[in-house]
Amino acid sequence: MLYKIKKFIPANFKRKLKDLGIKIIFLFLNIVEPLTGKFVSFSTRPIRASGISILSVCPEENYSEYTIVMQGPIVTKYRFTLETLLIYKKLFPGAFIVLSTWEGGDTYTIEAARGAGLEVIINKKPIPGLFNVNMQTVSAMAGLRLAAKLNKKYALKVRADQRIYNSESLTFFSNLLKNFPLTVSGSKLKGRIIATGAYNFKIKQKIYNIYESSPIFGYLEDVMLFFGADLISNNPPPLEFLKKYYPNSPFMAEGYIFTEFLKKIGHQPENTPEDYLRCLARYCILIDAMTLGWYWFKYKRFIECQNLGLTYEHNGHLAFTDWLNLYNYYK
Question: What percent of the residues of the chain are helix, what percent strand, and what percent coil, each to the nearest 5?
Fold first, then answer.
């Protein structure tokens, strides 16, 4: 409704409203900073695809070898999921874009996506599994299998409540795979798995796992291995590395997906800090989400860094700088 009204507001008046809004925000931040003892900044991002401008330093690329699989429940506020799909279509021409969602999802988004020439998969809901692990793996794999039938080379798995704004992201990802080839002999992987960091989730042992809720990129067959974990019950067996510190809840989605992935590629986890760090160095590439212009329409969405990549506070996160140091250490 507000978006429709905005079209009829004179441009000069909109600029004045914008300037007034910024002044009010600055006034508020000048009060907040001394109270919190922290510097505060803010940034804006286009809500809709129509607000996106593309400025590339490289020649225009055809993304026909790439697939983008968006999975998860549809976000209707601000048409977030739909506008994100339209943004990807605009940023990455030729890419095979799939929305893999659930029965009962928003019909307007589904039909609008199909009307824009995008693929939509409607999945039947499985048993959710603890922390909805099955919901994620089933919807992700449905999109990845469809892309495999079309012989796509690269895959980016994203969530329906997240967005990437950087138009160079897919090229950046594939260049990382070329510049950091897999060096482990006998691995079932074709290349590395790229993710926006890894977390230790406040585990005293400092065992880091890839945060599967982040964007995941790699060769298509590798991404399928990553999300190929078996379905679990709502009361699955505990994860060994969590039993000591969380005896009442020794399971987490990230740990399950990552450890099952390691097993599938032929590595038996030792459940030690060194082993997990070595795996991140040998099989993965960790990048900073801010490089992608990444935005998560959830939780602390008004906080710019969202714990991804800044190191002046200890947050249990491994950024690109950490990964590069690990990569060289475990060569």
Answer: 40, 15, 45
Quote the CA–CA distance of 165 and 54 in Å, as a whole number: 10
Structure confidence by residue, pLDDT tens digits, 204-255: 455 566 665 689 999 999 999 999 999 887 777 666 655 665 555 556 777 7
Q: Which of 214, 307, 205 is nearest to 253 (CA)?
A: 214
Specify the pLDDT at position 238. Answer: 62
Calpha distance 98→104 (Å, rounded) = 17
Q: What's the pLDDT tens digit per position in 66-111?
A: 999 999 999 999 999 999 999 999 999 999 999 999 999 999 999 9
- Report how far residue 221's alpha carbon sits from residue 191's, in angstroms, rounded to the nearest whole number: 9
Produce one character per residue of 49-67: b if its CB has 16 or more CB atoms within 10 Å, e if not. beeeeeeeeeeebebebbb
Which strand ranges, in their side-by-side order, compose the sheet holding 193-195? Answer: 119-123, 96-102, 66-71, 154-159, 216-219, 193-195, 284-286
Distance, in Å, from the CA atom of 191 to the CA atom of 195, rounded to the nearest integer, reads 13
Structural contact between residues 229 and 260, judged by C-beta atoms closer than 8 angstroms: yes
The per-residue pLDDT for 317 is 76
- What average pLDDT does this structure show over 154-169? 96
Report whether 49 contacts 87 (CB < 8 A).
Answer: yes
Rounded CA separation 114/9 (Å): 31
Q: What span, in angstroms and rounded, lies between the C-alpha atoms of 229 and 244? A: 24
